[in-house]
Prior knowledge:
Elements: E1 4-12, E2 20-25, H1 38-41, E3 48-49, H2 52-64, E4 71-75, H3 83-97, E5 102-107, H4 111-115, H5 118-124, E6 129-132, E7 153-156, H6 157-163
Amino acid sequence: MSTRYNNIIYNDTANGEGMRISFFTQGCSHHCKGCFNKDIAWDFNGGKNFTVEVLNEIMFVFRNFKDGYNGLSILGGEPLDNFIVSKTLIDTFRNEYKDSKTIWLYSGYTFEQILKDKNKLELLSKCDILVDGKFVEELYDADLKFRGSSNQRIILVRQSLLNNKVIEYKTKGE
């Protein structure tokens, strides 16, 4: 299990609704053709160590500028291949903000695949939105919001888990 991360963007509007902190995990097992993070985020040994200091810095920024942020987005690499880092971040964030801020999780795994893995499901169940599915270069669409290819879905996690079926989130203008 990787305990590394690749990058943190503190003022991101591209990876979820509103202003967010986007956290990029390090390492990915999917290796999607055309991935925008291929050269920097695929290698599980690359990136930087995820430390208590890094976690504290993220939470410090949220605490001091919380009214400006809608929530946290976790991307990759592949967050679900980085269980320790993702769990630590999600649990800390959820403990502090309960449901007042949202967590968006981006994964190359589909919702259906995640349901079959108890560790992945544990992480997913604490998130609000899942953007699922591998990036497919042939299905790339620059007009899509919050995802890169048309096979990827934006899923309302809690509603989907309660109803035992995928319920998609509709972005403004779609």
